[in-house]
Amino acid sequence: MKDLRELLPDYALGLLEGEEKTRLEQALQSSAELRQELLELQAALMRLPESLPPVTPPPRVWARIQQRTHPRRNFLRWAAAVLVVAALGLGGWGVGLYRQYQTLAQEQATVARWLADPEVKWQLIKNSEGQSFGTMLWREEGPCLMVLREPPPPGRVYQAWGRKNDADPVSLGVFSGRVFETDYEGFDFMGVSLEPPGGSPQPTQPLGRVPTS
Amino acid sequence: MLNGGVEPDTALLSFLAKGDERALEELYRRYSPSLYALLLRMLQSREEAEEILQDSFVQLYREAARYQPERGSVTAFLFTIGRNLALSRLRSRKARPQKLEDHDLHSPDQELGLWREDDPTDRILVRRALQRLEPSDRQLLEEAFFDGFSHSELAERHQLPLGTIKTRLRRALLKLRAYLGGPQVSEEA
């Protein structure tokens, strides 16, 4: 037993290996006296850190410990964030749908008002291949309404143009719906082009035009 | 339940074993500065000391239910976890670390832990106990404990026979225990 007791300091320091370590660990299982002495030596050793001035660790260490010890709470926070984003997305989608509905209703009301006028004339707006993609309604005194079959593709807008013979086209405005009210007076042709948001100084992708007379 | 930060460590570990995260926070508040100082001393690297400090408290959290008060104090339990992790890190390195420069007191990351309920009495007591050891014994003990040097490494560093190293280390630890209030030991030990 005395022989084994002499091994206890090395064991407490973690310096015991091999057959000596195995022998001591077996003895520790059966000897309360050895275990008690080992505890006392370990207790003395583990007071050595007290000889050092304490140093406060940076706050990020505790934050990382929390992340690692409470992943479920972190997951719940993450899930809550996803739900909030989803709710905002759904809300945004709902708002978007409502705005689309409002735009459609306004367009229908405008078209209905024009069609209710017996003086209104109309003609098809065709592309260079002769295919129609919309209609222009007009009145003799100058006002007109462009009605296109489809809204512009995402990221693009329609731009309306008026043009005199042998002159550059003049921008009459951009629109992202299917209906555009303007005035053809003073122009020989009315046209429509596809443009980037905000429009362009000159038509970059002309779709087609109609003569005004 | 926590009660104003006056619970003994053993009660905190008992709460922790039941999943009370505030107990872990309180233990971290009490002992992270001392453990961080130990890890800085052992690893000589702030980055690695932070990493092992994290690992130590995560292990404490996971093994809280394994703690038995009759087998030692909570600090001994925690510091043993931290020291063992640091020793593994030291032994996985190819070369011993260079000594870290003294802590920069002006760095917010290296603020001394004076804000906590730091009781210098314990520090003075342990330092006095260390000072009572033979200087060469004290150096061997500190190199074995803080630097993780093995018997053979110490024998090579100090150009002493292996048996002498073992004898001096045992003597140093037995005396330290006695000076810190444990059983008396003869000066010849």
UniProtKB/TrEMBL annotation, chain A:
Q: Return any one Pfam family short name.
A: RskA_C
This protein's GO cellular component annotations are: plasma membrane
Region (Disordered) residue spans:
192-213
GO terms for molecular function, please?
A: sigma factor antagonist activity
Give start and end of each Anti-sigma K factor RskA C-terminal domain: 79-208
Q: What InterPro entries does UniProt report for this protein, alphabetically?
A: Anti-sigma-K/W_factor, RskA_C
Q: Which UniProt keywords apply?
A: Membrane, Transmembrane, Transmembrane helix
Q: Where are the transmembrane segments?
A: 75-98
Alphabetically, which GO biological process terms does the record hold? regulation of translation
Q: Does the keyword Cell inner membrane apply?
A: no
Query: Is RNA-binding tagged as a keyword?
Result: no
What is this protein's record name?
A: Anti-sigma E factor
What species is this protein from?
Meiothermus hypogaeus NBRC 106114
From TrEMBL, chain B:
User: Which keywords, in A-to-Z order, does the entry hold?
Assistant: Sigma factor, Transcription, Transcription regulation
- For the keyword Transcription, the answer is yes
Signal found in the keyword field: no
RNA polymerase sigma-70 region domain segment(s): 27-94
Cite the RNA polymerase sigma factor 70 region 4 type domain residue spans from the record: 125-176
Q: What does the sequence similarity comment in the record state about its family?
A: Belongs to the sigma-70 factor family. ECF subfamily.
- Protein name in the entry: ECF RNA polymerase sigma factor RpoE
Q: Which organism is it from?
A: Meiothermus hypogaeus
Identify the gene encoding this protein: rpoE
